[in-house]
Amino acid sequence: MLTRPQRVTQRKIAELAGVSQATVSLVLNGKADATTRIPEETRRRVLEVIRETTYVADPAARSLAGVGNNIVGVFTYEHAFPNESSDFYTPLLTGVESAAEQIGVDLLMFTSAPVTDGRRRIFHENNRLRLADGCLLLGREMDPVELERLVESDYPFVAIGRRDGADGRIPYVGVDYGTATAALARLAIDQGHKKLFYLHLPLTAESNRDRTRGLLQELDAVGLSCETMVADGTDLRAAWSEIRRFAPTVLFVEDHAHAQSVYDIAVESGISIPGDLSLIVFGELTRPNEHVVDYTRLSAPRPELGSRAVALLDQLMNGTRGAEELPRQQLLDCTIVEGATLAAPRKETAL
Amino acid sequence: MLTRPQRVTQRKIAELAGVSQATVSLVLNGKADATTRIPEETRRRVLEVIRETTYVADPAARSLAGVGNNIVGVFTYEHAFPNESSDFYTPLLTGVESAAEQIGVDLLMFTSAPVTDGRRRIFHENNRLRLADGCLLLGREMDPVELERLVESDYPFVAIGRRDGADGRIPYVGVDYGTATAALARLAIDQGHKKLFYLHLPLTAESNRDRTRGLLQELDAVGLSCETMVADGTDLRAAWSEIRRFAPTVLFVEDHAHAQSVYDIAVESGISIPGDLSLIVFGELTRPNEHVVDYTRLSAPRPELGSRAVALLDQLMNGTRGAEELPRQQLLDCTIVEGATLAAPRKETAL
DNA sequence: CTGATATGCTAATACGCATTACCACCTCGA
DNA sequence: TCGAGGTGGTAATGCGTATTAGCATATCAG
């Protein structure tokens, strides 16, 4: 229900100023070719009328006419804003927002994308992607088929999180989890741990694989191996039994929320952390803090991830405006948080 | 840099299906007047081509052609996403997002609005409001002039938070702070408090006035009065000196963050809360929890505030689609959290 | 006085879609 | 055989803007 009647258009401005619509457009866009000359006097008169009428250009018309709209789309595969069980995106979006503000673009959140088969899909009837000049993709996992199709379409987009596929043509800004988990593994090794257990998520996205690979490679390098188990979070008590049976001295947990549950169960079972069992977490808090344990963990620069993604997208949309060209695929370093849940194993290996 | 070349339009679909562009449009919009009949066979053929080409309509063109865009704008007077010092909007936006998803609209965050004189302005050259079919306004304080102008423009919008002005024609969904602060005052009165101090914000928005009014009216009703002081948060220690000089038995604090500072200073000064001094807070946590005190306080239903605002805006944009008409101005009830910072004053009034 | 060049604009058009007016063809009843 | 009414579309137009080609007038060199 756009309010057609009282909309002020360039034509009306033109009438009031006694010029043509074209002239109004030219004044507005500050053109001054050899072929289009507007004397100061006319320009002033037009601007005056524009001020009086509080005219604003219709962005839809501008868009149709072929000029960009300065809109960056944001597609999240899950809810963008925090709910009671998860706050995954806001740290990223904080960075996105500040970068968007800097380059003067608005953010279009594709909240209307329907959920099919458990997740949102980019391509569906009445896809709205093109309303934005380019798009950011956020999500733990993304559909390779959709990514492939996006690449083919030549539509500018940037994924947050490393994405292989599409012959390496997917632009992304990700996190170097491999190096970080390797460093965490090294910390445990240096403390003398030998019995290790890895509780990981049932996901196979790039970042999940990176974490696992970083851990295993580092262990491999010193001839250690690691018991692993998949947990989806529904029955952490079962996982805990499994862990107790194996009796590791250090437990790596991929998901922060799982770590919290395990921590609680451990305390409840009289197992002290890190006295009896060290706990190292490979992810960050993604839900509202209830109790906060200072885990030994990695920490990704999430706001920076967001702002860098915007910068890269800006480049894809508008070219390097004289600035240095950014790589189309970037990995940012994690911080290692020493935390308080790693200690040397209780019994020094008596052999 | 819209990628003009390979854009699929209705015209191309029409060519491929051997019909006219008009037919494609008719099929897409499922029109079936007496004057425009499309036989099933043709419809099928067109839809088939559309599926193959993954055509999507250009929303800008649709908008220009006079149909809505299913975009709800979100204008925040400050940063929408949390930063280190404040997380004011996300609880609201959580509600906004889920409601937006339900009615199938996208959310356009006006991050590009420039900051002038300390806050964002809606109206500026190259105002982009009209890209959205309607708009939500969020902020502690809003410019009355801008609101007036919005009302005049007939553009559909809803303010979050009560807004007077414009002859009561501003649509809003707000919080009934008056009733809530009165109830909190009553709690203190019932405990026997007589020496009261109110530390409030240097703001005069409707919600601030409501809080103050609710408090003072309730006190008035039992013949009590209250020392008041304005604090902007820059020098809470000075405020604290003032409070100590007056020596109240209960302290009302409007801002949650101020309450935290005061709490810390009190503990530091050896004043026990609520033993020596009761503390009642009129606002909610708006920054990442560092330490969490279970204040006696009010709690506004912020996600609901967001979703109701979207529902109201939807009505303003599209009419009550058969549903019951929502009031254009709504106030939601707060919850009172008893908390742990209110107790009876130490010395019963010994006359 | 004549052509050339500069100046100050405007008319026309495209963008992609929705919508309305209308046309060509067919069938059927009288 | 003719007209009425039904069927299956299409051509034309408008939405508000950006852009380009070009026109009318003035000025100036020769």
For the largest beta-sheet of chain A, the strand count, sense and barrel status come to:
6 strands, parallel
H/E order of the elements of chain A? HHHHEHEEEEHEEHEHEHEHEEHEE
Shape of chain A: elongated
The assigned structural class of chain A equals alpha/beta
As a percent range, the share of helical residues of chain A equals 25-40%
Q: Mean pLDDT across all residues of chain A, rounded?
A: 87
Strand content of chain A is 15-25%
The greatest inter-chain interface is formed by: A-B, 61 and 61 residues
What oligomeric arrangement do these chains adopt?
Answer: homodimer
Tally of individual helices of chain A: 11
The N- to C-terminal Cα distance of chain A equals 80 Å
The counted number of beta strands of chain A is: 14
**Order of strands in the sheet with most strands of chain A:** 2-1-5-6-7-13
Weakly predicted, low-confidence segments of chain A: 1-5
Rg of chain A, nearest Å: 27 Å
